[in-house]
Amino acid sequence: MIDITMPSLGSDMTEGTLVEWLVNIGDQVSKGDIVAVIETQKGAIDMEAYNEGKVAEILVQPVTKVPVGTILARLESGSDIPKSESKLQKGSEAVSTGQEENVEEPFSAQKTQPIQSAQSARLSSPGSDVRASPAVRKMAEDLQLDLSLIKGSGPSGAILLDDITGLVDGSNNLDMASAQTKTNELNFSAMRAAISSAMEKSKREIPHYYISLDIDISKVQQWLQTENIGREPEQRLLLLAVLLKAVAQTLIKFPQLNGYYLNNQFQAGAGIHIGNAISLRDGGLLVPAIHDVEKLSVDETMKTLRDIANRSRGGRLRSSELTDATITVTSMGERGSDTVFGIIYPPQVAIIGFGRPRQAPQVMDGVIVPREMINTGLSADHRVSDGVLGAKFLHALSNKLQNPESL
Amino acid sequence: MNLDHIRTLVIEAIQEVAPEIEADDINPDEDLRDQCDIDSMDFLNFLSVLKNSSGVSVPEVDYSEVNTLNRMLEYLDRKIKKEFMESS
């Protein structure tokens, strides 16, 4: 039997609410299948199975708030090896002694990522100004609460289950105004706490080295311009999609930058899963991963990027997207700074920062010409790689970007 | 479609990607994306919404012609009138 437990998706997450089961007893599930919807302070998340098996028992019924690690259901599998379904949670508490923890550990350190506020605009029901999930609506109905009177603490004022339970558990005694202040403060401090904890750990434990290279992206910009002619807005490519694809292809030859540093040793990533720092309008920050970018076309990369950006801002992310990036990319965008050196998300070993794309004078064949440039910063773990290797990576990336049509 | 109607569609499209923005917050002659904190992904979403509501799809080469609210309104007005002339 394999336990399915309430996962931890952040160092600050101590409990979560089971909102809905998407499987029934007797259903066969595969690794990666979405089995349930959970709601955390960061919003609604699709919970995935980490093993395959047949659902044998369902122990917790929705809608119930339970501590992280609570067994929610059990899977029957072909194998007799007992194993916790929730590697997210178990890895964080396990003393790493064997091979199995080596596999699990990435999730635990990763869980300190500042994941925030994936709560959803899409949960708003049509014809209503109130943003609330079906579970929230049901609870409000049961309690005969008027949702329009409640100020939500989620993004765009979305009402979270916590907002309701906060109102009814006596702590607020239906004092709407104070409930609002309280939950907003809680969310804000929880977000800072999650970011602090990951960044402190990183700066305390990881000996970073920092290098950068100005990369000429004139050809990429020209190629994009041509590609985007005749494309409708929803089909257009963004520079970032090309950059991500080029990073992934280049990383194939630089495995020392892609993976985890755990138990005093480096483990190369099984795939190239790039975490993308996405800032939310309400000040939150999410770093969802795009999986196996090296296998995607530029169009597919763009499609996935669009999807995770929209789901970060308004919809729902999958638990694996928040936990298994093997490297992170942060991009300043057109209005950002020229250069960015990121702080590595432990246990990853590198973060790539793209500055603002800009026109700058370059010397080519002895002549000064205006070119489209982007500064590319690499922060990497000196326990795993050296600056010389990092510089080689940046030059290889630069070369890749000189042939955008071959990406 | 008069200018007031077009303005309403543009404001609605902005609010789709930047819900906290009110019409009064926007200086019509200053950079729209700067004021509304719209990144390149938001901008594509904004153009999609606007295309569906106004029928005008702004191509990438015309981005510089729609960088303020007033310029965006003039641009859409011109395109909509042109379409009307051609179809009638």
Number of helices of chain A: 9
CATH class of chain B: Mainly Alpha
DSSP E strands of chain B, number: 0
The CATH homologous superfamily of chain B is called: ACP-like
The end-to-end span of chain B amounts to 15 Å
Give the structural class of chain A: alpha+beta
Helix content of chain A: 25-40%
Share of residues in strands of chain B: under 5%
- Write down the oligomeric state: heterodimer
> Tell me about the biggest sheet of chain B?
none
Could you provide a short overview of the structure?
The complex is a heterodimer of chains A (407) and B (88). Chain A is an alpha+beta fold and 407 residues long.
Describe the structure.
The complex is a heterodimer of chains A (407) and B (88). Chain A has 407 residues and is an alpha+beta fold. Helix content of chain A is 30%, strand content 26%. In chain A, strands 10, 13, 16, 18, 19, 20 and 21 form a 7-stranded mixed sheet that branches. In chain A, strand 20 (358-364) and strand 21 (367-381) form a beta hairpin. In chain A, helix 1 crosses helix 2, helix 7 (239-251) crosses helix 8 and helix 7 (239-251) packs across helix 9. The longest helix of chain A is centred in the middle third of the chain and has 30 residues, at 176-205. Chain A is globular, with a radius of gyration of 23 Å. The two termini of chain A are 45 Å apart. The relative contact order of chain A is 0.13. Residues 80-128 and 168-186 of chain A have low confidence and may be disordered. Chain B is an all-alpha fold and 88 residues long. Chain B has a single domain, classed as Non-ribosomal Peptide Synthetase Peptidyl Carrier Protein, Chain A. Chain B contains 4 helices and no strands. Chain B has helices spanning 3-17, 32-36, 40-54, 69-87. The two termini of chain B are 15 Å apart. The model of chain B has no long low-confidence stretch (mean pLDDT 93). Chains A and B meet through helix 8 of A and helix 3 of B.
